[in-house]
Amino acid sequence: MSDDTAHTTPTTFRATVPGVARIGVNRELKRAVEAYWAGRIDATALERVAAGIRRDNRQRLIAAGFDSIPVNTFSFYDQMLDTSVLLGALPPRVASVADPLDRYFAAARGTADIAPLEMTKWFDTNYHYLVPEIGPDTAFALDPAKIRDEVAESLAEGVPARPVVIGPITFLALSKAVGGAAEPLSRIDDLVPLYAELLGELHRAGVHWVQIDEPVLVTDEGSGSHDLADLAERVYAALSAVADRPRILVQTYFGDAADRLAALGRTDVEGVGVDLVAGTSDGVVSAGLTDKLVVAGVVDGRNVWRTDLDEALAALDSLHGHVGALAVSTSCSTLHVPYTLRGEYDLDAALHGWLAFAEEKFAEVAALSRALTHGITDQAEQFRASRAALATRESDPRLRVSAIRERLAGLEPTDWTRTAAGVRREAQDAAASLPVLPTTTIGSYPQTVEIRRARLALRNGAIDDTAYRTRMQREIAEVIALQERVGLDVLVHGEPERNDMVQYFAEQLDGFFATANGWVQSYGSRCVRPPILFGDVTRPNPMTVGWITYAQSLTDRPVKGMLTGPVTILAWSFVRDDQPLADTAGQVALAIRDETIGLERAGVPIIQVDEPALRELLPLRAADREAYLDWAVTAFRISTGGVADATQIHTHLCYSEFGDVIGAIAALDADVTSIEAARSHMEVLDDLNSAGFAAQVGPGVYDIHSPRVPTVDEMTASLREALAAVPADRLWVNPDCGLKTRSNDEVVQALTNLVAAAHRARDEV
Ligand code: GLN
Ligand code: ZN
């Protein structure tokens, strides 16, 4: 093979990244897979797009000056799903799909009669992976076709390819046991021989380095029954003992691998990758890696800020003498940031200078690597530019708005502590006469084609603000009429004006910037464009009051105002890294507080502040969790603590199991909490009860993620179950989440059934 090409440096390398995005600079992969699913293109055409994206990635990395190029980080859907294929661990229910590519997509998305794999958050990022299922009969077997092909196409171009795979510990720790199988990590000894086989295969293909990702080593995952340091030492001692193999880089990211680094140091692997943005160089210094290549992630791979090159170089220098060799890298795959700043024409010059997306990060890595070997002088320009940008960032008035800082500093606990819940309940019951088991919805109604079209027309100037407002008002009127028709008790305006529950607010708050093309993959073909929170956050104008009061003017029933909470706004944005998250959260909380007060003044009796992402920002290490929950809860309470007793505050949570943050949910002190009841209602409610939860709750009785319309009987059964756990005077009846992804027909039928179920249950209590 191509051992002797100019780029190949078999024993070590100096500059790389752990992985890159694969959706395509212009989301080519999204378009192609969606076209394939819709039957508009065939597998050959899809593969052509994929090959183009992979080639483009290799060329970008080579052009940046990297001497080791990650491959196999391409994926048609998800790298964990790819690993399930690699290890022969797809669930048996997809075996009936004959074509491998269709089988893969069946596992990812399901078919008419095959349920897809469950999806969940990749560590504490906004990327979602497909959870592998390990059953009692899962018989692992190596299927290296994908990785072999991607290696071959790279080596054929003379690229110094470093194939990347998810490691066995991470794979199993992130899997779930099904069908009564034992804990997945107990199968580790079945996987090690497969990885050994893979190493042999890659060696024969001419590969010099392989990267095995073990991000789970920075967490407390599996620490109950398996000590992760012991496990890492055992697995990598075994893999490094394989006779003819490439050099092994064990790559960690998203945190400090602490004692696990020392465990890896005791094995014969040749390289260890560390995240020096989330972790520190101290941990590396003490880990005994003096004979290893350390791939130092000093450039943040998951946030968008330009690197302080002097500081990064100092971190690298501090490793000298403590490691065998040093390579520069990003802290993790650049999957989590947009491709390039090119094309962001709306950015003002200052902001442009503060940012670095993937392509700009590659240049930073390369500059640091060259500075390490040749000194700073021939990199002087890059370093000067970095210093100059940082200086303007520190002095920009938008980053320090004294009015908001003083206001935040002046807040007292009384500002975020409402009257006792029981007293509020009386005031609220007196203000509104709701039946027992009141019915409501979570906020959004179907985002129809007309709504999207109107938004597009506004953006490209085909209609003006007034015309847009009129169209949205028409939508609101229809949604109000629909809710009256089906007989709901507490109505909502339907959120037609919101492109996204975070972006909508970010666009109206000062301190945020919305990118033109800053797409990142959320899961599969779905991409999001997170706003960038760069400065102090203030609210120049009311954001929702006009829409909600318009809705209220159309009906005698109470309309619930609808806001996104501060934690969720942070979780789904790129957030400034120059101050503690808690301070930033406090500023966003004040903006939402002003909005709740504004709604109350405008006569809105009920206000919901959504916090679906409360669980998402939970730190990976248990030791950091209390501090996080403390500021997160305080931020929510600042948002909602400025209203009178008679104003009813709702909150809504979803996307997660909340078992480990139930105490924090109780501490939010909302009057009504609607919660996704993905497991059984009893479990959610038992958890809430055990946390001393005494407020009102609405466990979802309609799973809005499915096109299936639940029957009156099913929803009545759910309500009976819920009534066994909480008394009737604390129970609300509502769907699991917003209805924006459903069709109008489904929504009308499902809500009609939901109201009928509530009436039946009322007759029984
Ligand atoms: N109010 C939002 C909606 O109904 C809540 C969405 C969410 O929880 N993710 O769409
Ligand atoms: Zn939800």
TrEMBL record:
Pathway where this protein functions: Amino-acid biosynthesis; L-methionine biosynthesis via de novo pathway; L-methionine from L-homocysteine (MetE route): step 1/1
Gene3D superfamilies registered for this protein in UniProt: 3.20.20.210
Positions of Zn(2+) binding: 652, 654, 676, 737
Known EC number: 2.1.1.14
Annotated InterPro entries: Cbl-indep_Met_Synth_N, Cobalamin-indep_Met_synthase, Met_Synth_C/arc, UROD/MetE-like_sf
Residues the entry annotates as binding L-homocysteine: 442-444, 495, 610
Binding site for 5-methyltetrahydropteroyltri-L-glutamate: 27-30, 121, 126, 526-527, 572, 616
Reaction catalysed by this enzyme: 5-methyltetrahydropteroyltri-L-glutamate + L-homocysteine = tetrahydropteroyltri-L-glutamate + L-methionine
Cobalamin-independent methionine synthase MetE N-terminal domain ranges (all copies): 17-322
UniProt binding sites for Zn(2+) 1: 652, 654, 676, 737
Cobalamin-independent methionine synthase MetE C-terminal/archaeal domain span: 437-759
Pfam families, alphabetized: Meth_synt_1, Meth_synt_2
Protein name listed in UniProt: 5-methyltetrahydropteroyltriglutamate--homocysteine methyltransferase
Native source organism of the sequence: Gordonia neofelifaecis NRRL B-59395
Phylogenetic classification of the source organism: Bacteria, Bacillati, Actinomycetota, Actinomycetes, Mycobacteriales
